[in-house]
Amino acid sequence: MYRTRRRVLPVVSLLLVSLTVLAGCTNAPPPPLVESTSPSPSSEPPSEPPKPKVVVASVDELRGGFNPHVLADQSPVTDALAELMLPSAFVPGKNGERVLNETLLESAEVVEDAEKFTVRYRIRTAAGWSDGAPIAAEDFVYLWEQLRSQPGVINPVGYRLISNVESRQGGKTARVTFDKPYPGWKSLFDHLLPAHLLKDAPGGWVDNLDYGYPASGGPFAIRTFDLDRGEVVLMRNERYWGDPAQSNRIVLRKAARAENITALRSGNVQVGMFSADAATMDALRGLGEDVQLTTMPRPVSSTLLLRPNSPQLGDVRVRRAVLAALDRQELIDTGTGGGPAANLPAHAQVLAPSQPGYVPTEPSGDYTEDPSPKRVEQLLTKAGYQHSGGSWVRNGSPLNLVIAAQFREDSHEAIANSVAEQLNEQDIQTTVVTPKGDELYRTMLTTDPDVQDPPSSAGIDLAVVSRPVSTDPAATLAAQWGCPAVDPDTGRTRRFNMVGFCDQLLQPTIEAATTGEAPFRRASERVEPALWSEAVALPLYQEAQVLAVRREVSGVHDGPGFAGPFSSAGEWVGTPGESYDW
């Protein structure tokens, strides 16, 4: 073999020399000897990487405070961010029923052989926060500890029935034990919070969620948060263990309604959420077929509270006189501006109009739509008041009612001012105050007597509020109308409701509905007439928003139940947009 190679090499060399000489004598190029494997040069510039897919969503307002469990922070943006980043044990199914969130949990079930009513939650091993920490039983513990003890929280009743939350299997199992059976347990542990970042942080429960969430357990995470510019940029959470989001980025931008509509028309905004009045609806319909509109009822009802623990309103006859002085339809028109919420008037004390099982419970007679000056006079006279000098006076003091509405809650402020004007027309003096949400719900309408003196000293007679509803109507009933309970750890009394209402004759019925001993419908048939008779709250309407979506964005739809459109944000497919530093 070695010799063969020595003979061949000279022949090849002679051949190469011959070809070279021939090439020099002719114009024809020599044939290639070996096919090249290197890329041929090209004059085309290299292709640019694809631009990230972006969905820009416009919102009416963007203010600090995004704790989804706090009354003061209720807003459509809070709902949106919570759906995007805070995982829940159960989520609304296609028909609105609660179904297991299989992305977060392997299982959640009642432990049959436990001595007390016990639920075991098995958390998926891969489930974790965007900072790398696992989602664990400590997150269940943290939410339980806060919602059973903090004032001004949403639907705390189920958490107050829990006696213990244990961490097992390295934190990936939470074992929850209740003092009593609780059939509404699937409504608990919504929007878990990252306990490892919050439990020992300065400001704690009250202040740490003013600018979003320190970590995400959903398909998106906060990249930038700029209240001054009115913009929140959400990026795809690369640590998310579930299906990755279809879009790279979602941008929430605040602008005036007219600007948002213009941006929808031009395509600079692809999704809009509006607290729409009649004029806004006309403008949205004018966008034509390029924009699809959907009305989304929110899980809150705008309500006027008449607080019986107020010295001025302690007499039910005075409360009834106040209601007789009001034009209810005018209050609804003022709050809704003739928008979609005007089609959701509330005529029940617990359920909201869009909820399954809702039926009007309001009795005829006392609750008339039009004011009745004659009835006002009769009731105030029976309560010991005399009409003198253009006001109603008792024991030398005029009837002067303080009406509260949350600061910068425009519709509620407008309703409060309208209530004041209508009462003034009946010579009932009024003062309107607009405290910040934390002050109103945590102090003035406190459910915790440790925060300050009992609520009767807070000086609020009436309040225009958003009352939340729950997928567990019995828990809503107890949260809004239950009597004070005793904290088993401290022995101190807690209030369940911001009205200051308690009827010891109704309390056994409310508790029986909460624990499943009595069906909610039967309990409601007894409780609702008593609430209307006591004149402690005037439901006005269920709040609603309008979702506007341009055709070029796919996957955007209103979620089942009260989940809202952002529950499906992982499926949104946006249009290519300008790149941020990723």
Automatic annotation (TrEMBL):
Q: Which GO terms describe its molecular function?
A: peptide transmembrane transporter activity
Signal peptide as annotated in the record = 1-23
For this protein, the record's PROSITE patterns field holds: PROKAR_LIPOPROTEIN
- Write the protein's name: ABC-type transport system, substrate-binding protein
Does DNA damage appear among the keywords?
Answer: no
Q: Which UniProt keywords apply?
A: Signal
Q: Which domain of life is it from?
A: Bacteria
InterPro entries reported for this sequence: SBP_5, SBP_5_dom
Tell me a GO biological process for this protein: peptide transport
**The species this protein was found in:** Actinopolyspora righensis
Q: Where is the Solute-binding protein family domain?
A: 104-437
